[in-house]
Automatic annotation (TrEMBL):
Cofactor: Mn(2+)
Recorded name of the encoding gene: 101895062
Keywords (A to Z) from UniProt: Glycoprotein, Glycosyltransferase, Manganese, Membrane, Metal-binding, Signal-anchor, Transferase, Transmembrane, Transmembrane helix
The protein's name in its UniProt record: Beta-1,4-N-acetylgalactosaminyltransferase
UniProt domain Galactosyltransferase C-terminal: residue ranges: 162-239
Classification of source organism: Eukaryota, Metazoa, Ecdysozoa, Arthropoda, Hexapoda
Subcellular location: Membrane
Length: 290
């Protein structure tokens, strides 16, 4: 409420100027199929930052202007050495998300050189760093090379964890197997805390997503999914990473380690941090060993 005293003095009226409280945002309801067509031509990060920056708050954050967001979503992207994908991802994901009536911020968690890539540890770091900025209710863990293809794919967190990347062109738009949780997945803050985050034991390619799937089952959580015609994605081209030979062994032992391998055991330094117009960047050094 704002009352303008000087105005009252001048004309003697009791008039007050009030600001209506904003309504709560409504999730968009899209009945018909609504393709999102990503622009996958390469553009430099500088140009993307210049183009999209004015539409965003610094650090790649957004909230609707005309309503109060119902969902506060941290988008956490594990990253190293895929700059072409990063700029294509940013150019498209903001365009896609800005129309969803949610408040969100993009967290790019880059691993320093030295150790093999550890996607799961980076997501734990993303969770912890994001929580220092805001008490997000929803976390979406997102491969940098996946772009959504339908506007009905709403980026929020339902009662159960949601596997989002159900139908990817690379897998002929079919779910590879029932328990898959890799690619893009959504968990509430509570879900994530309940399972102690991801395991930090998976260095190199593979297994970390299945380990999370096991953690969820162990906590009596079930994987929800949008229908196959909505949860559609395209994967940008890349070479296949070398698979971690220990991934099966890790998976077998994983269930016994939930309580002491995860959010409560991750050790890292943030080597560098920067707020770019279209993303918040964390350069993280893992202090855990292979
Ligand atoms: C699958 C999963 C992925 C993960 C991975 C195994 C799907 C759709 N995707 O992806 O979620 O479980 O298998 O670990 O099921 N990355 C980098 N730099 C690297 C390596 C990886 O930035 O050097 C990041 C990047 O965000 C990438 C993601 O990690 O998209 C997954 O790695 P990938 O794309 O090489 O693996 P992929 O496609 O087999
Ligand atoms: Mn990939």
């Amino acid at each position: 409420l704002h009352s303008n005293n000087s105005l009252n003095q001048v004309n003697g009226s009791k008039e007050t100027i009030t600001t209506e409280p904003l309504p709560l945002c409504q999730d968009p309801v899209i009945e018909e199929s609504s393709p999102f067509v990503p622009n996958i031509t390469l553009e430099s990060l500088d140009v993307i930052n210049d183009q999209l920056g004015p539409l965003l708050e610094p650090g790649g954050a957004f909230k609707p202007k005309d309503c109060i967001a119902r969902h506060h979503v941290a988008i956490v992207v594990p990253f190293r050495d895929r700059y072409a994908h990063l700029s294509i991802f940013l150019r498209n994901i903001h365009k896609f998300l800005m129309q969803q009536r949610i408040a969100y911020r993009i967290f790019i968690i880059e691993q320093t050189n030295g150790k093999p890539f550890n996607r799961a540890a980076l997501m734990n770091i993303g969770f912890l760093e994001a929580m220092k900025l805001y008490k997000w209710d929803c976390f979406i863990f997102h491969d940098v090379d996946l772009l959504p293809l339908d506007n009905r794919n709403l980026y929020n967190c339902p009662r159960q964890p949601r596997h989002m990347s159900v139908a990817i062109d690379k897998f002929n738009y079919k779910l590879p197997y029932r328990t898959i949780f890799g690619g893009v997945s959504a968990m509430t803050r509570e879900h994530f805390l309940t399972v102690n985050g991801f395991s930090n034991s998976y260095f190199g390619w593979g297994g970390e997503d299945d380990d999370m799937s096991n953690r969820l089952r162990n906590a009596n959580l079930f994987i929800a999914r949008y229908p196959i015609n909505i949860a559609r994605y395209t994967m940008l081209k890349h070479q296949k990473e070398k698979a971690n030979p220990k991934r099966y062994e890790n998976l077998v032992n994983g269930i016994n380690k939930i309580g002491n391998d995860g959010l409560n055991s991750i050790k890292y330094d943030i080597y560098s941090y920067k707020s770019y117009p279209t993303f918040s960047w964390y350069y993280a050094e893992l202090k855990i060993s292979e």
